[in-house]
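quick one: cytidine-5'-monophosphate bound model?
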Amino acid sequence: MKIKAFAKINLTLDITGVREDGFHTLRSVMVPVSLCDEIEIQQSKCFLFDCNIKSLVDEKNLVVRAAKRFSEKSGIEPSVSIYLEKKIPFPAGLGGGSSDAAAVLKGLNLFFGEPLDSSALFELAEALGSDVPVCLLGQPALCEGRGEVLTPIELPKKLCLVIAIGSARLSTPEVYREYDASGLAVRNDSDAFLASLVSQDIERTFGNAFEPVADRLAPETKLIREKMLSLGALASHLSGSGPSVYGVFECKEKADNAASELEALGFSAYYCETI
Ligand code: C5P
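yep, here:
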């Protein structure tokens, strides 16, 4: 069985507070995009995990952790081999690991004849990470709480995107810590976004509260955003806690051109679309 694990981008990301457990409350519109990893599940004598990127073959990989949680909850020994073809850059703020975990939960449940219902799968997803539930949902949604309270949304149009990333890396906990220390005013891009859904003019409402922090920790993220805009992007923002940046373009042709220009500058750039 082969399953695609789609990346996500954050069209908005407002941080609204800090919980007692240290996690932050947020409001973020997350959308799946066509850039994806591929996961193959096959019958095997025992559980095996392999990946095209050998440094990811680890007990701590979310693929292995998702398979363990599935096994504990369903009581089924996962006698399967799971092969992960990693194509989504990481760590990037694109939800690659979360999406792999969600795809494994969904895939194993199908493989073993659906022993778990949807609410059990979402419970497992929530325990695996803040972005795993929205990846399991697999459609655009306003994510609230820690990220697990989901309200599905329908985008008024398909977005043509370029996702670009340089060599800088950002650690998610560090970005959250720096954001807390920065004293930045709370943004509310999400409400503006929801209000804009009645029109086609949604791009002006996109935003990400982490941008001032990422600009300081990894200045190339700002450079990429500015380059995207100079290449005709309707909007360009950091995705999640970065360091990947997306640009929204009017059409595939303009996006392809921007991707080539960004590649020429030494960045990795991927054309994709919202799904
Ligand atoms: O849930 P996940 O494992 O993706 O979170 C990674 C880290 O990001 C957490 O350990 C925490 O530092 C930060 N985080 C947060 N609030 C959220 C999501 C993530 O503080 N809502």
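The radius of gyration is 18 Å.
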